[in-house]
Amino acid sequence: QPTIGVLAVQGDVREHLHAVQQAGAQGTTVRRPRELAEVDALIIPGGESTTMDKLVRAFDLHGPLRERLAAGMPAYGSCAGMIMLADRIADARPDQQTLGGLDITVRRNAFGRQVDSFEEDIHFAGVDGTVRAIFIRAPWVEEASESVEVLARVEEGPAAGRIVAVRQGPLLATSFHPEVSGDHRVHGLFVEIVRNYLVEGKQ
Ligand code: GLN
């Protein structure tokens, strides 16, 4: 059973721990470099990316996280976690940094103030049927390089066609929050990615 850490400096940590367990892996919180060293993979939860960035640096996790990601550790980011994994932010706060890894540009709070939060059933590559996607002040992926696989797009309304789920090698990210919907298939997909990575060994 792989051990999947959930970055626990800020955000909806408990929901991800629960989803990871439901998806058949062991979940544990990560707040310190030595806890990071003990996990096979990491989830970066939803929350607030500027706050998360500040806390990651305050907890001396920025360097260790970047090192593990560069070494090929699988990671999954939902919402603010997607922003943390993005190489570029379209509208970053002046001193906002990300961990990077995904060759994408994200736009924060992209769906606008009028639609703070909404839900939609969307198709998700690798998952049968549809997934209930819950968006809360969500980012979208404004640009993705050719090495990035697009897994899901918004299907209805003015934002139809916008990219909201991507994968690049062992990195997975969603604009929405599968951890709060009670449907653990996206976490299941991530656990599969982690299992394959453990079998293949570190690239
Ligand atoms: N708007 C938040 C940010 O920029 C993300 C919201 C979320 O994670 N639900 O970090």
Automatic annotation (TrEMBL):
L-glutamine binds at residues 47-49, 108, 136-137. Its EC number is 4.3.3.6, 3.5.1.2. Pathway: Cofactor biosynthesis; pyridoxal 5'-phosphate biosynthesis. Coiled coil: none annotated. PROSITE patterns: GATASE_TYPE_1 (PS51273), PDXT_SNO_1 (PS01236), PDXT_SNO_2 (PS51130). Pfam families: SNO. Keywords: Glutamine amidotransferase, Hydrolase, Lyase, Pyridoxal phosphate. It catalyses: L-glutamine + H2O = L-glutamate + NH4(+); aldehydo-D-ribose 5-phosphate + D-glyceraldehyde 3-phosphate + L-glutamine = pyridoxal 5'-phosphate + L-glutamate + phosphate + 3 H2O + H(+). The active site is at residues 79, 177, 179. Belongs to the glutaminase PdxT/SNO family. NCBIfam families: PLP_synth_Pdx2 (TIGR03800). Catalyzes the hydrolysis of glutamine to glutamate and ammonia as part of the biosynthesis of pyridoxal 5'-phosphate. The resulting ammonia molecule is channeled to the active site of PdxS. PANTHER family: PYRIDOXAL 5'-PHOSPHATE SYNTHASE SUBUNIT SNO (PTHR31559), PYRIDOXAL 5'-PHOSPHATE SYNTHASE SUBUNIT SNO1-RELATED (PTHR31559:SF0). In the presence of PdxS, forms a dodecamer of heterodimers. Only shows activity in the heterodimer. This is Pyridoxal 5'-phosphate synthase subunit PdxT. It comes from Pedococcus aerophilus. The lineage of its organism: Bacteria, Bacillati, Actinomycetota, Actinomycetes, Micrococcales.
